[in-house]
Amino acid sequence: MTDLLIGVRCFIRGFSLMLTPGVRSWAFIPMILSALLYVGLIWAAAEWMGPHLDDLETSLDASLPSWLDWVSAILGPLLWILYWLAALLVVTFTFVIVASVVASPFNGPLAEAAEHALTAQAPPTTSWLRILTRLPGVLIQETKKVLYAVFWSIPFLLLLFIPIVGQILWFLWNAWITALAFTDYPLDNNGFRFADMRRMLRRRHWAAYGFGAAALFTFTIPILNLFAVPASVCGATLLWIEVLRPQAVAEGWHPPPTNGQPSDS
Fold it and tell me: Is the model's pTM score more than 0.85?
């Protein structure tokens, strides 16, 4: 149970780490891009919905009996209020997913900057050109994670038919895959392959469950979930530095050789 709390604490401390000088720029750039994307989509949807809402208002207006004429005065504003509430719900429940996709090219440099901050080294010199050159490797790594998650989600989905036990196992699986998804960035920066990452996390599975459960809980909280992705990357870097790396050193684990250089994908 100590490992469970360690995982939770690493995630929580990720929020303060993402505000560290040299780290925060890599945390906030994808957040700003995600916010701009949503602003553009909501504005475009409002432009498209405007005429349709006007038509709906006219149609409803015509169908109202005379004694409900007072409703006509509030019908238009009410429809727009419903639109903005629906937009808010969509943003709340999809922002983490969209932000994860937008942030994926930046998460490697973010984890690298966080690791340098934690180890008191100089910040890494990460350029936009390097981000672009890393992009194919990032896409391959993200595809591996998605395929792994989809493949193993199927049996856990079937287990949902078992009351209580199925729901508990489904939650633990989601906590595990969340921890794996974010610890991938610091471990990949240090040259470890996806299979190595899974083995390392299995050795400290309670820490993984604690980290993943805390992240999943945060993803559901409006406003706080806007910061969840960079905080998760920074928290996962803490988990690597304080838990997984000492274990790897103690057990003699080393990343596979890549011509003398750490993995850059």
Answer: no
